[in-house]
Write a structure and sequence with these properties.
Strand order of the largest sheet: 5-6-7-3-8-9
Bound molecules: adenosine-5'-triphosphate
Radius of gyration: 24 Å
Order of helices and strands: EEEHEEHHHEHEHEEHEHEEHEHEEH
Organism: Streptomyces boncukensis
GO molecular function, one term: ATP hydrolysis activity
Protein name: ABC transporter ATP-binding protein
InterPro entries: AAA+_ATPase, ABC_transporter-like_ATP-bd, P-loop_NTPase
Largest sheet: 6 strands, mixed
Family: Belongs to the ABC transporter superfamily.
Length: 340
C-alpha cells in the first residue's frame, strides 16, 4: 500500500504537487491520470524518495522509502525507459542492480525471461528499441519481486503489441495481489486497464474513484433534437418531465436514451424535426472536461498559435467528481473556446 498525506512539492514559484492525500491499494491497478505537467512524475519521484516533499508525507507499507530495508523487495518502478546505462549489457545492468540490493543472480535470468528479453541479454541497451527499453526497465522493477509496482507512462511510444503486453503484465501483477500504480495522460488507456482512478490537475487532487463509478457518472447519454420550433418543443418535453439542456447551435439535449419516445411525442404534437440523434459522451471527453481548467497549457486558437498559460479555475475549490461536467450539461453551457 502507498499512502500520501498532504504531499506538496514547490519548485520556486511553481506548485508542482499541491496537498495530495490518497492511498493506492493492493490487488488492483490504480490509474494515475492527469494532463501533461499535472505533477504525476513529481509525485512518483517523491514516493521513491528521489525528490523530497516541501511538506506532507508518503509511506510505503507504513514506512518512508529511505526506511525500507532492501527497497527493491518492497517497490519496483519504471520511471524512464532510457534511464539505463546504454553501454552495459542488459544482463550486466540487472546483475549490478541485483548485487547492490542483495538479490541472488539467478533472479536476473528469471526476470529477463518474464519480459521476453532472454535472447538479447548479452546486448547493450543503447541499440534497443523503445519497447525493448521499456521491457528492460520493467525487468529491473520486477527484480526484487516487490509487492508494489509503479509505472510512469509505460505505454508511451509503444506499438500495439507492446501496449497489449504491458497491459497484460500489469493485470497479472495485480491479480497476484500486488499494488500496481500506473500513470498516464490518456483516459482511453486507463479505461482499458485500471480498476481505480486517481486524477490530478495542476498538482491538485480532482478525483479518487473506482473506474465503475467513473463510468456510471460520466458515460452520459442524451438525445439531440433540432427543430424549427424549439420553444414549443421545450414546453412539450418539460411538461412530460424530461430534463433538458441547451446544445450547440440551438439544439435541445434531452437526458437519457428515449429517442423513440421523443420522436413519437414530436409526431403527436405535429412538430417538425430536423434532427433526433442519440449521443453518448465518451470517457475521454469526461476526463477532458474534468481537467480542462487544470491543464497547464492549452492549444490557443489565437493568431500567434502559441501555447498560452491556462487561466486559474473560476472556482478554486476542489470540484466533486464529475460535478463540473454535469453542471455544464445541466446548465446548458456549451464548450468554451478555452477548452477547445
Ligand atoms: N526539477 C524541476 N524544476 C522545476 N519545475 C519542475 C521540475 N520538475 C517538474 N517541474 C514542473 O512541475 C510540474 C509538474 O511536472 P511533472 O513532470 O511532475 O508533470 P507530469 O504530470 O508528470 O507531466 P507529463 O505527463 O508531461 O510527464 C510542471 O509544471 C513541471 O514543469
Amino acid at each position: 500500500m502507498i499512502e500520501l498525506r498532504g504531499l506538496t512539492k514547490r519548485y520556486g514559484e511553481k506548485l508542482a504537487v499541491d496537498d495530495l492525500t490518497f492511498a493506492v491499494r493492493p490487488g488492483i491497478i490504480t490509474g494515475f491520470l492527469g494532463p501533461n505537467g499535472a505533477g504525476k512524475s513529481t509525485t512518483m519521484r517523491m514516493i521513491l524518495g528521489l525528490d523530497s516533499p516541501t511538506s506532507g508525507d508518503v509511506h510505503i507499507d507504513g514506512k518512508h522509502y529511505d526506511q525500507l530495508q532492501e527497497p527493491l523487495h518492497h517497490i519496483g518502478a519504471l520511471l524512464e525507459a532510457k534511464g539505463v546505462h546504454g553501454g552495459r549489457r542488459a544482463r550486466d545492468h540487472l546483475l549490478c542492480l541485483a548485487q547492490s540490493n542483495g538479490i541472488p543472480p539467478r533472479r536476473v535470468g528469471e526476470v529477463l525471461e518474464m519480459v521476453g528479453l532472454s535472447a538479447v541479454a548479452g546486448k547493450r541497451p543503447k541499440g534497443f528499441s523503445l519497447g525493448m527499453g521499456q521491457r528492460l526497465g520493467i525487468a529491473a522493477a520486477l527484480l526484487g519481486d516487490p509487492d508494489i509496482l509503479m509505472f510512469d507512462e509505460p505505454v508511451n511510444g509503444l506499438d500495439p503489441e507492446g501496449i497489449h503486453w504491458i497491459r497484460t503484465l500489469m493485470q497479472r501483477l495485480a491479480s497476484e495481489g500486488r499494488t500496481v500504480f500506473v500513470s498516464s495522460h490518456l483516459m482511453s488507456e486507463m479505461a482499458l486497464t485500471a480498476e481505480h482512478l486517481v486524477v490530478i490537475g495542476q498538482g491538485k487532487l480532482l478525483a479518487d474513484t473506482s473506474m465503475s463509478a467513473f463510468i456510471a457518472e460520466n458515460s452520459h447519454t442524451y438525445v439531440r433534437i433540432r427543430t424549427p420550433e424549439p420553444e414549443r418543443m421545450r414546453d412539450v418535453l418539460t411538461a412530460q418531465g424530461f430534463r433538458l439542456s441547451a446544445g450547440e447551435g440551438g439544439a435541445i439535449e434531452v437526458e437519457g436514451d428515449n429517442a423513440e419516445r421523443l420522436g413519437e411525442l414530436a409526431a403527436a404534437e405535429r412538430l417538425v424535426l430536423h434532427e433526433l440523434s442519440p449521443q453518448r459522451a465518451s470517457l475521454e471527453e469526461a476526463f477532458m472536461q474534468l481537467t480542462a481548467q487544470a491543464v497547464e497549457y492549452h492549444a490557443h486558437a489565437g493568431p500567434e498559435g502559441a501555447p498560452q498559460p491556462a487561466q486559474p479555475p473560476a472556482q478554486p475549490a476542489q470540484p466533486a467528481w464529475g460535478e463540473e461536467w454535469n453542471q455544464r450539461r445541466a446548465g446548458g453551457q456549451g464548450r468554451t473556446s478555452e477548452e477547445d
